[in-house]
Request: fold
Amino acid sequence: MTPQQIALVRDSFKHVLPIREQAAALFYGRLFEIAPETRSLFKSDIRTQGVKLMAALTMVVNSLDRLDRIVETVQVMARRHVHYGVTEAQYDTVGQALLWTLHQGLGEAFTAEVEEAWATAYGALAGVMIAAAREEVAAA
Reply:
């Protein structure tokens, strides 16, 4: 990611944090709308899951300029997701739901540049998670 993309993600995320509960609800609502089969992956209260989602996003956003420091944490998360039943294809669906949610929450501030920055950030994160998930599946 470029420094400008990192700045765009961080600046836009500052506007998401005050509405994080609504953003999480929008995200899961959209995810279950476009991929209803994912609903069964969530055993806990969706509000609790929303808190976890926002905490994970905060960690990633805060670490965009030093992703190497969170790679291990992200890999552990991906391995856990394999055991929850998450498939590789669902990473794309999650990315779609995330970008849609950001568009809803940020409105006109979700410019093409901001969208590209978020897509790049999510792509980097998903790439690390998919690689770790593949290793986990291969080891099973």
User: Anything to note?
Assistant: The mean pLDDT is 95.
